[in-house]
Amino acid sequence: MPAPAPSLTGHLANVLLCTDAAPKRFVTREVPEVRVTFEGIVGDRHAGLTRKADVRVPWFPKGTLIRNTRQLSLVSREELAEVARALGVPHVLASWLGANLELVGVPRLTQLPPGTRLFFPEEATLVMEGENQPCVGPGRVLEAHHPDLRGLASRFVKAAWRRRGLVGWVERPGLIRAGDEVRVMLPPPVTYSLPSASPESEAVG
Question: Which of 21, 56, 122, 168 has the greatest number of CB atoms lying within 10 Å of its CB?
Fold first, then answer.
């Protein structure tokens, strides 16, 4: 019988969404709660069952319609504080990064493995797709708040590496509220290695 998957508990500090559909607008605003469906957060610009392929999925031609596994983005308040210290600024707000959920109390949130599940009190369940790679877009927002500090946009990318948070999708609809306790269930650990070449295959050719 397999061992139970490890789990831990955190809390949801803030819930945010972006209703601006204009291109390259991603800054979010705080709301008390959101409802999530199989398409993502109701009313958020990133909601949808599908999305168009971009530079994040170079194995598809740009614009190809693919499943949307980036319905929501999550960040850690503790990791944002580390980014702020690295950049020498007072704080980095979750909204500046376009985040939807800001968690506290989950160690090394960005390093949670793909397949991690987040369970919320009112039925909502999210599955983590993977790390949200940092880019200069949020860095430019940060730079706009600190015009006296040059180069923040590019410096942000390095400072936010492995601290930028995660993206995920909705596995079970429900309600998510600021202040919720969040149960984090990690997937069972998997060790995979390529099989060594057999003498027969080495002899071919």
Answer: 168
Of the CA atoms within 13 Å of residue 17, those in its CB half-sphere come to 20
Residue 158, CA atoms < 13 Å, CB-side half-sphere:
6
* pLDDT tens profile 2-38: 666 677 999 999 999 998 877 778 999 999 999 999 9
Q: What tokens does 194 get?
A: 């390529």
Which structure tokens are listed for 184? 């984090």
For residues 40-67, average pLDDT: 94
Predicted structure pTM score = 0.89
- Between CA 44 and CA 146 the distance in angstroms is 27
Instruction: Tell me whether residue 95 is exposed, middle or buried, using C-beta atoms within 10 angstroms of its C-beta: 0 to 12, 13 to 18, 19 or more.
Output: buried
Q: What one-character DSSP code corresponds to residue 120? A: -
- Rounded CA gap, 83 and 156, in Å? 8
Q: How far is the CA of 199 from the CAs of 36, 89, 195, in angstroms?
A: 53, 59, 12
